[in-house]
Amino acid sequence: MNPLAWWHARSQAERFDISFRTSFYVALLALPLLFSGAVSADGDARAAVTFVLVAIGYTALVSLLMHAGIEHYLGRRGRPVRLLVAAGAATVLCAAASIVWFPGGMDAGPVIAGLTCSYLVGAAALRSLWPSLVVTVIGFLTLLVLGIVDDPADTVPHALSLLFGASMLFVGYRSSLWMLAVVWELDRSRTVQASLAVTEERLRIARDMHDVIGRNLSVIALKAELAAQLARRGRDQAVDEMLEVRRIAQDALTDVRAVVGGYRSAGLGDELAGARALLASAGIECRVIGEGRDLPESNQATLGWVVREGVTNVLRHSDARCCTITLRADAPDTVTLTMDNDGTRTTGRVRFGGGLLGLTERVGALGGALTADGETPGRFRLTATVPRG
């Protein structure tokens, strides 16, 4: 898979999440390097290799704890209690080993500081603040005691530096987690807004259908009941009433076809204004170039459907931040409508679903053509060209 296409297929929230996690995972990779640098002064190659391998295993464990902690903070899983206990025990054992194995050949302070920071990354991810603080303080005090045992002469400087570093890491990491949670919440809110916008459009169409056929159906019911009563009495007026029922039904059918076919729709200018408002309600900037109010009614109806379907696709199938709708006359007898948006989740050849196939038929009925271009990473363009008139 093309990495660039894969990246563009991710939503904004997913990209932020990936960047956030990757930065901390990469930072954890520095832990084995810290261990290798600390043991290099001792000169015991076998012990150094063993300790670095242990550090790699510890880093993998803390990485699992970090992942579980982030998922817990985002509300996707429960508290990673087992991982937290396992990582805590491993942290204490590694810190103790750094003192016992190399009592004279190395300074365990940097190693203990690295262990403290790596463990805090997992402990700070507990969603509730107080449990997170309690676990963090317990881990900090345990590692602080080990640091004092390693070098009693530097107790105060060691304690202050470790306290300052741990506090900054705790606050910074909690703030970063909060920001990640806010990004995902905004993404969910944006999805809900888009769904509500689509639902609002459906309700608008439903209201139009109700207005068109509701009154006619009521009249048909009354006329049919009257015709039935007249027929029971043997009155000739029953035939006239049924003919009237047929006429009203035919009128209602014509109105329904007009709504479905778009001939009873608002003008293209109104559709463009509605598209701008609909996209704005979903947090998408919409630029409209051209109005098309002077176009023939058939052009306005067809291009209005293109605008509706295009807006629906933007809301459903993209994480767009901006959309540009351009209406221009390429020639005296040709009109082109273009909808261009960013934030597409797929790249490559566009598959025409039911909506685009329906638009192709509508545009083709006027002798025009509809094209959809998704080859440019992160962008999608829908173009409808129809003859004027």
UniProtKB/TrEMBL annotation:
Keyword DNA-binding annotated: no
Single GO molecular function: protein dimerization activity
Pfam families per UniProt: HisKA_3 (PF07730)
Record EC number: 2.7.13.3
Record organism: Catenuloplanes atrovinosus
Signal peptide region: none
Major enzyme class: transferase
Superkingdom to which the source organism belongs: Bacteria
InterPro entries attached to this UniProt entry: HATPase_C_sf, Sensor_HK_TwoCompSys, Sig_transdc_His_kin_sub3_dim/P
Signal transduction histidine kinase subgroup 3 dimerisation and phosphoacceptor domain sequence ranges: 201-267
Name this polypeptide is given: Two-component system sensor histidine kinase DesK
Single GO cellular component term: membrane
Keywords, alphabetical: Kinase, Membrane, Transferase, Transmembrane, Transmembrane helix, Two-component regulatory system
Residue stretches spanning the membrane: 20-41, 47-69, 81-102, 133-149, 161-184
